[in-house]
Amino acid sequence: MIVASLLAILLAVLIGPLLFKSIEHHLDFFFLATGILAALVSGQFGWPLLRAAATAPIALTAAVLVFDAILIVIRQRLARWFEALMRKVPARWLCFGLIVALGSLAGVITAVVAALLFVELIELMRFGRTSQVAITVLACFAIGLGSALTPAGGPLSALAIANLHAGFWYLARMLWPMIGAAILIVAAVSFAIPLERSAKPIVDLGERGWRAVMLRATKVYLFVAGLVGLSSAMRPLVDRYVRDLPIALLFWLNSTSAVVDNAALTAAEIGPALTHSQQRAILMGLLISGGMLIPGNIPNIVAANRLRIGSREWARVGLIVGLSLMLLCFATLELLA
User: Fold this and answer.
1) 137 near 292, Cβ under 8 Å?
2) Burial class (CB in 10 A: 0-12, 13-18, 19+), 51
3) pLDDT in tens, 192-207
4) DSSP state for residue 197 in the 8-state scheme
5) Where would I find the H helices in the chain?
6) What percent of the chain is predicted at pLDDT more than 90?
7) Nearest CA to 251 among 173, 333, 319, 181?
8) Are 143 and 103 contacting, i.e. CB atoms less than 8 angstroms apart?
9) How confident is the model at residue 25 (pLDDT cuts 50, 70, 90)?
10) How confident is the model at residue 175 (pLDDT cuts 50, 70, 90)?
């Protein structure tokens, strides 16, 4: 009965944001509520879980708060510097460098801040709609991948480290060769994107005040706290079923991360009972497929919301790039097995 209830909650987590726009727009409260419910059903609700849920989001929330505040302070100076840089560096090389830089730094400045910074800069480049969408999708792939290298990068890496009881650099040591190669591949694809210019900014970004900074930090805190509860409740399912699945199946099953935030699947799947190879297959499957559609990870949601990118616009680029990366990554995992 408990297993059936937990599976029903997990199903609601997976399809709820797809069926209801109100859930998609309030993921923080949704995951907090489902995390509490799952913990109550599994009998995990208590002071140890409350303490973990209260402390696990602190590092990520603090990083979002600090870097988001810094971005507000330096925004005008950053705009002047970047506009001067655009006069000296060809647009294609600037896009390539921006994707590589933000992908590499996302694990330090957090995926949310990297996505916000990208949105600021891509608007300054005044690309036409098609070019802007394509470059944005590529950048979010890179940001999502790079954010997994440290627990400060985003909810996925924070939860993975917490669930595995591992050190700060555990994921970086395990994943950096594959993630580094994937970021470079994604950045290189930007050279194939036709770069059309627009005469004026495409959208008014808004949400630039201190109130927005505090709101974003609060949403991140609640989101991660809810996922901690969800992951604790789902631990028996991981230990009983997931650890016995072959690596190839684990990798391709996680292509469902294209339609649900990959942190939710991390909460449900990652645990210390998994082998090193299983952990790597799960995480790489989640990270790559998470870039294919807007709900897949936080950078996608942030950028799509701020630039008003539709699901079909995103999918035209994201599915092609994501499926190609999945095939390359699967071949690499097979060689390493």
Assistant:
1) no
2) exposed
3) 999 887 765 444 444 5
4) B
5) 2-19, 21-25, 27-42, 47-55, 58-88, 91-109, 111-124, 129-146, 155-164, 170-189, 210-240, 247-253, 262-269, 276-289, 298-307, 311-336
6) 31
7) 333
8) yes
9) confident
10) very high
As a whole number, mean pLDDT of residues 56-63 equals: 78
Per-residue tokens: 179: 């993630």
> How far apart are the C-alpha atoms of 276 and 136, rounded to whole Å?
32
The one-letter amino acid at 300: N
Taking CA atoms, 322 is separated from 24, 75, 288, 289, in Å, by 22, 32, 6, 6
Would you state the structure tokens that stand for residue 75, as one six-digit string? Answer: 């925004």
Whether the model clears a pTM of 0.85, i.e. scores above it, the answer is no
Average confidence (pLDDT) over 184-192: 96
Q: What angle do the packed helices 210-240 and 155-164 form, to 10 degrees? A: 40
95/38 Cα distance (integer angstroms)? 43
Q: What is the DSSP letter of 154?
A: -
Pairwise CA distance, residues 309 & 320, whole Å: 17
Q: Record the tokens describing residue 46, joined without a space.
A: 């208590």
Distance CA 176, CA 220 (A): 25
Amino acid at 109: I
- Say how many C-beta atoms besides its own lie within 10 A of residue 3's C-beta: 13
* Longest CA–CA separation in the chain, Å: 65
Convert the pLDDT of each residue in 140-164 to its tens digit: 999 999 999 999 898 889 888 988 8
Dihedral sign for Cα atoms in the order 241, 247, 248, 253: positive
Mean pLDDT, to the nearest integer, of 314-332? 93
Q: Indicate the residue type of 55.
A: T
In this predicted structure, the answer to whether residue 257 has a pLDDT above a threshold of 80 is: no
Give the separation between CA 16 and CA 127, rounded to whole angstroms.
34
Report the C-alpha gap between 86 and 93 in whole angstroms. Answer: 10
Category of 189 on φ-ψ map: left (φ > 0), alpha (ψ -120 to 50) or beta: alpha
Residue that has been written with the tokens 């830089």 in this structure: 101
270 closest CA partner among 234, 222, 296, 221: 234
